[in-house]
Fold:
Amino acid sequence: DLSPTELKRNLIAWAQKKGYDLRTHKGKAELINFDYRGYHFGNIWLAGDAAGFASGLTGEGIYPAIISGEAIAKKILDPKYPAYEIDRMVQKQNKHNKIIHLSARSKILSRLLTESLVVALKLKFINFHSLEMAD
Structure:
């Protein structure tokens, strides 16, 4: 496992080889769209973060982007394709949103849920992959 410092150093070195100087840039987080409202609007198809498939609880977005992109491609090629993968992602996201809304009720509840989740993950009572958008 690499430390965050080592990861950053490796990223800077890789970027320099590609002709980019990241040493003067400060990393920052950006907002993640997890407000799912649908993925098919007439002749417009949305996948990943554009469709709001990222998890507001875990921040995971790459896996849902890949899965939704593949399912949408299958759906475009075969309109009868059921896209069960997307149904599962939406169900999981609804669960994540319930936890988020519950924790937003109070700082104490939010802290308690966060700390409980961290402890449960460390003790392997729950698996991080069970928190991902698709099982």
Summary: The longest helix spans residues 84-103. DSSP finds five helices and two strands in the chain. The first strand starts at residue 40 and ends at 41.
